[in-house]
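Worked Example 4.2. Consider the chain below.
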Amino acid sequence: MAEPIRFYADEHIGRSIVLGLRRRGVDVLTVSEAGMRSASDQEHLRFAFEQRRVIITQDDDFLRFHAQGMAHWGIVYASHYKTVGEIIRGVMLIYHILSPEDMYNHVEFI
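Applying the procedure from the previous section yields the following structure tokens:
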């Protein structure tokens, strides 16, 4: 079996989403756990890239970085209008269907 996607939840992603994903067996690292609380968005992108993690975010700055051609291992952008359950279901679909390589320099919208 291929290596599963590992995620990095930025500061905009609530603890309930992180816990819901972890209960489903997903590897999710938070900004706090990574010791990246005061880091800039560019530093978060760089950190996630070095760790080969897909960023889960509701911050559209990451969409701008993508449009500017900054390399990343994937961005999952969750609309502010989505519920916790919708975000978890969307991430789980990505987790089960796509590989880390599929997510390289790719954005998925929830």
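The chain has a mean pLDDT of 96. The chain is about 40% helix and 15% strand. Compare this with Example 4.1 before moving on.
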